[in-house]
């Protein structure tokens, strides 16, 4: 039996997620109390754990309001910047919450010590503001080389059939940027249309899959010669290609 997973849109473009298996209900990030409480009420699930990905307020600000008697778990590397943690976990740590097995993966770049969480038996991963559908997070507390290493770590760690839940609905802008950057890429062009239609229907584009990201997320393809060539950077180091991709996205809207 796989876990039940429920995506909860919060604020203008954030996502929280509930994972439920047997008596365990895990909330991943707490952007806004109202929608999270409504989802708990609707499902009848009682929150047992809160997993925090990183210290940004739009991921932690509702922890106190929703936690009840749940245990709050977050990254050791940002523990001094996250209020109300009951327990910290570090890179590579494997732990169980009820029947759910979880592996913490450190992915610095967006912030200095964030964690992604991989649930191998459930075939899902929470990549917060590190890996987005067709994009990646902004570099607030790390340089491009650091973020590129983090994305390579995720690319190696997460199997193709993993459902990827990211922290924001940024996919349409990411897809438009990917298409502008790699106009000859058919898979990106096709996915842009799928994403556009989903957003016109106001449907989420999350979760995505690791297979889709490996194929159509330019930020996971900084070592792909096609991407370097499209940027006029043949032979450049992947970290430099990545830096150029990220810089272009910063100015894109
Ligand atoms: Zn963030």
UniProtKB/TrEMBL annotation:
Metallo-beta-lactamase domain boundaries: 13-168
Q: Which GO biological process entries does UniProt record here?
A: methylglyoxal catabolic process to D-lactate via S-lactoyl-glutathione
Q: Where does Zn(2+) 2 bind?
A: 58-59, 129, 168
Q: Which Gene3D superfamilies match?
A: Ribonuclease Z/Hydroxyacylglutathione hydrolase-like
Q: Does the keyword Transmembrane helix apply?
A: no
Q: Does the keyword Hydrolase apply?
A: yes
InterPro entries recorded for this chain? Clx_II_MBL, Glyoxalase_II_hydrolase, HAGH_C, Hydroxyacylglutathione_Hdrlase, Metallo-B-lactamas, RibonucZ/Hydroxyglut_hydro
- Position of the signal peptide: none
Q: Which SMART domains match?
A: Lactamase_B (SM00849)
- Entry cofactors: Zn(2+)
Which keywords fit this entry according to its UniProt record?
A: Hydrolase, Metal-binding, Zinc
**Would you identify the family this protein belongs to, as annotated?**
Belongs to the metallo-beta-lactamase superfamily. Glyoxalase II family.
- Mind telling me what this protein is named? Hydroxyacylglutathione hydrolase
Native organism: Acuticoccus sediminis
